[in-house]
Amino acid sequence: MTQDPLVIPFDNSYNQLPARFYTRLDPEPVPAPSLIAFNRQLARDMGITGGSDAELEAVFSGNTMPKAALPIAQVYSGHQFGQYNPYLGDGRALLLGETLGQDQKRRDIQLKGSGRTPYSRGGDGRAWLGPVLREYLVSEAMHHMGIATTRALAAVATGAPVLRETALPGAVLTRVADSHIRVGTFQFFAAQRDIDGLKTLLEYTIARHYPQADGALGLLKAVIEAQAKLIAQWMGVGFIHGVMNTDNCQIAGQTIDYGPCAFLDRYHPMRVYSSIDYAGRYAYGNQPNIIVWNMAQLATALMPLMPDTDAGISTFTAAVHAMPKQIDRYQRAVFAAKIGISAPKAGDNALIGDLLALMADGQADFTNSFRALGTVVARDQFLEPDKFDHWQERWQHRLDQEPDAESVMARSNPSIIPRNHRIEEMISAATNGDYAPFHRLLSAIKAPYSDAPEFADLRRPPSAEEEIEATFCGT
Ligand code: AMP
Ligand code: MG
Predict the structure, then answer these.
(1) Cys-Cys link to 30, which of 158, 248, 298, 397 (CB 3.0-4.6 A)?
(2) Residues contacting residue 223 through CB under 8 Å, at least 6 positions apart
């Protein structure tokens, strides 16, 4: 079969910004690139056409630069576990450029794991296969569940080992995002007291993401709204990001930087999986608090743009203080829908809260318990089913006023999530050269609200031996 040459419709704008926003740099070549996955559907949306496997693996490993790509490493800073680090930036990633699709959507294409940059600090600039495939799967799962996220366009094995605790196979992920502007990007210019840079970034960001926003306050409010909605959605599917540092908090409101992320198996409100999160700063139930903290850092970074400091402080503070209520509102809507309620009323909070308390006590699997509501197996999800029966009666009574409960629940409670133990299993197989579990998981997560019988095994919660206690960083 002949294949038309690869065409990527680049239309770059970030590299038109002043030189201090990035470093212009090419990827480091890799010895033996081989294509693991290419997201044809996403490519089509982006207006990408053609490309043989050989061409795709050459381009998406960084070995060949496509026409009109002009790779740059972006600079940013950020609070990591609450500590400000003034010099971060793309230490193992390069932005190839932006595409403008038929849908007129502007998207960043970034290679992750493409080699060292001036921002690598002690790192090798590389990624190993495990985190690359984890990010590919989890980000695509989030997308198919309807949650704003960066996407995965390609995964390529490099043929070179990456040294971690042992030698592991290297890989490059091609990530697609609305942009890679982070809270930490604003923090960088604010900390440098580079007010011109900050102003340029503000104008660029507003034009690109929030054209209706009026100035710094308008941007702050728009980002707060987007993040409030996003975090409520995470909570609804039991997603734990794991590293909600301000450099991993994207201005456009997409989930970004999948590291030691995980999904709840058994429900516990303060569950932590990340091996580096000793204090539980980024625990499941702390995410709605931490995002407010992150928005306070964005507000602080934007402050120098306010002509009147006193008025600025009070309006910015009010915007941040309003956020917990916005998150509550979104979260109430998300969880109400999970129990079949499309128009939440006073009293529904207690119904939701009581169910979650029963789930915590009863060691219920988060995903399966919600999915089972209204079926005969619902009570079997709880250690002491009798306790659930009483709640179920109250709930049934409430549902008398909700005509569409069943269909609302069916589209609000995923049946398939990429479970932690399945991801680990998939990574082990891939490390041994077997990509079949990766491809199978990928096809399953494309229809998260379906009960397809061929994926019954992927719905089963982990046994005691299978249960994952800790997840590790993406590096
Ligand atoms: P993360 O929280 O994983 O997104 O990464 C935090 C910072 O560390 C970012 O500036 C990354 O670019 C950098 N970093 C992570 N892993 C590596 C690596 N293997 N080599 C160089 N820089 C890295
Ligand atoms: Mg990061």
Answers:
(1) 158
(2) 210, 251, 253, 295, 298
Name the strand (E) or helix (H) holding 280.
none
CA atoms within 13 A on the CB side of 294: 31
Full pLDDT tens readout for the chain, 475 residues: 568 999 999 999 999 999 999 999 999 999 999 999 999 999 999 999 999 999 999 999 999 999 899 999 999 999 999 999 999 999 999 999 999 988 899 999 999 999 999 999 999 999 999 999 999 999 999 999 999 999 999 999 999 999 999 999 999 999 999 999 999 999 999 999 999 999 999 999 999 999 999 999 999 999 999 999 999 999 999 999 999 999 999 999 999 999 999 999 999 999 999 999 999 999 999 999 999 999 999 999 999 999 888 999 999 999 999 999 999 999 999 999 999 999 999 899 999 999 999 999 999 999 999 999 999 999 999 999 999 999 999 999 999 999 999 999 999 999 999 999 999 999 999 999 999 999 999 999 999 999 999 999 999 999 999 998 888 876 6
Distance, C-alpha 194 to centroid of its chain: 30
Examine residue 72 and state whether it is found in any structural domain, yes or no. Answer: yes
| CB atoms closer than 10 angstroms to residue 135 | 23
CA of 245 to the centre of ligand 2 (A): 8
Q: Please give the tally of structural domains in the chain.
A: 1
Tell me whether residue 386 is one of the annotated catalytic residues.
no
Distance of alpha carbon 146 from alpha carbon 353, whole angstroms: 24
- For the chain, what is the radius of gyration of the CA atoms? 23
Cβ of 88 closer than 6 Å to ligand 1, yes or no, is yes
Q: Tokens at residue 27, please?
A: 């990827």
**DSSP SS3 for 102:** coil
Q: What angle do CA 50, 53, 54 make, to 5 degrees?
A: 105
| Residue closest by Cα to atom 7 of ligand 1 | 88
Ligand 1 pocket, residue 475 CB under 6 Å? yes
Dihedral sign of CA atoms 10, 148, 85, 134 in order: negative
Which residue type sits at 253? Answer: G
Q: Is residue 9 part of a domain?
A: no
- What distance in Å separates the CA atoms of residue 388 and residue 384, rounded to the nearest whole number? 7
Domain span at residue 21 reads 14-177
Q: Interior CA angle at 120 toward 282 and 62, to 5°? A: 105
User: How many other C-beta atoms are found inside a 10 Å radius of the C-beta of residue 401?
Assistant: 10
What are the φ/ψ torsions at residue 57 (nearest 5 degrees)? -70, -30
Whether residue 444 lies inside any domain: the answer is no
Q: Does 23 map to a domain?
A: yes
